């Protein structure tokens, strides 16, 4: 049910020693030449990325390097403009979570042309050689944890399985689905689950490993584009067309918390759905409340504090002239990118207190119904 995340501590000794400055700081940079680290995040419209901004600010508040955080608001054009703005300020290291992994290529190529080290953050930038490092959660493990949770909760056979995925423009969406398919496929093939909403997935149900194109064909049918409204509309369409044999007790692979809540609300409102198990990801506050209330089954907790620690530690290594530690490589369709992976953990009603409250990630006062 997912790998245990390593315990979060203070920033690494390197970060504590060399530090990084508060967001938008006007103080002097580490080498006196300008902006040290530029950070570009995809949008302020998803709680996940606002959370990341806060964690970066917390990590960088007492240090000597200068940083600036900019948001792309779901626009690749704005993303490129943000990178150009940071380049003009003399940035040495770029940490970027791309809105669109392929479209971001031209932006990071401009940075690379200026001798800037590019760290792809959480989402992999694809189809370009202009990526030096990748800091990520183990995205395949996220999908595996989601799929395994559905398997662990399954009773009997012939259980209707509704599949949903993230945006086809996000490489992580492929990795999440790949991981989920890896564990779910044997249980689809043996009849434990019956695919309810994807003809493409049904046609591939006997295939354990899918090519990128085959994954793309399924994602094309079940993508939510990470948009809760689109997820809601798709779920409504699927339930409207589903026969009685595809209702009752069902299992739902939802790619993240925002889409999970929307999909769960739709399924909960259908009188022919007697029970549902639904996955999530990101441990958003609203979904933690849903889990406490029994409206969402689980979420994959990705401790942003640890991801930020890894990203900033890597940036400091670069600024200090050292080679960052990496633990894996990822193929971005152009090169093998050196990466550092951060582990994930499954959270449900049984361990929400231990993993999210006792660990200090959230305050108990932020939720109702905690025992």
UniProtKB/TrEMBL annotation:
InterPro entries assigned: Bact_Solute-Bind_Prot2, Peripla_BP_I, SBP_2_dom
Residues annotated as domain Periplasmic binding protein: 37-322
Molecular function per GO: carbohydrate binding
Top-level lineage group: Bacteria
Coiled-coil intervals: none
Compartments in which it is found: Cell envelope
Any Pfam family: Peripla_BP_4
Protein name, entry field: Sugar ABC transporter substrate-binding protein
Species whose genome carries this gene: Jeotgalibacillus alimentarius
């Amino acid at each position: 049910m997912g790998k245990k995340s390593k315990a979060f501590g203070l920033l690494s000794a390197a970060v504590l020693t060399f530090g990084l400055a508060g967001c938008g700081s006007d103080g002097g940079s580490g080498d006196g030449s300008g902006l040290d680290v530029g950070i570009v995040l995809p949008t302020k419209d998803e709680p996940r990325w606002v959370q990341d901004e806060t964690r970066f600010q917390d990590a960088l508040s007492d240090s000597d390097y200068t940083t600036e955080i900019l948001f792309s608001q779901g626009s690749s054009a704005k993303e490129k403009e943000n990178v150009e703005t940071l380049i003009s300020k003399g940035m040495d290291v770029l940490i970027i979570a791309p809105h669109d992994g392929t479209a971001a290529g031209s932006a990071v190529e401009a940075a690379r042309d200026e001798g800037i080290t590019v760290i792809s953050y959480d989402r992999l930038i694809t189809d370009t050689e202009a990526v030096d490092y990748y800091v990520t959660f183990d995205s395949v493990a996220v999908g595996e944890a989601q799929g395994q949770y559905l398997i662990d909760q399954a009773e009997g056979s012939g259980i209707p399985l509704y599949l949903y995925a993230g945006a086809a423009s996000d490489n992580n969406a492929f990795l999440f689905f790949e991981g989920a398919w890896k564990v779910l496929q044997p249980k689809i093939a043996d009849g434990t689950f019956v695919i309810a909403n994807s003809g493409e997935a049904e046609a591939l149900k006997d295939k354990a490993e899918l090519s990128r194109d085959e994954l793309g064909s399924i994602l094309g049918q079940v993508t939510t584009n990470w948009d809760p409204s689109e997820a809601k509309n798709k779920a409504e369409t699927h339930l409207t067309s589903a026969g009685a044999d595809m209702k009752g007790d069902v299992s739902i692979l939802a790619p993240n918390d925002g889409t999970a809540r929307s999909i769960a609300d739709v399924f909960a409102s259908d009188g022919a759905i007697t029970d549902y198990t639904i996955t999530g990801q990101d441990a958003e506050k609203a979904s933690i409340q849903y889990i406490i209330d029994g409206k969402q089954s689980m979420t994959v907790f990705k401790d942003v504090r640890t991801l930020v620690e890894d990203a900033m530690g890597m940036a400091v290594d670069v600024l200090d002239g050292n080679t960052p530690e990496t633990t894996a490589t990822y193929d971005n369709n152009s090169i093998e990118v050196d990466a550092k992976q951060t582990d994930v953990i499954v959270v449900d009603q049984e361990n929400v207190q231990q993993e999210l409250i006792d660990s200090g990630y959230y305050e108990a006062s932020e939720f109702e119904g905690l025992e």
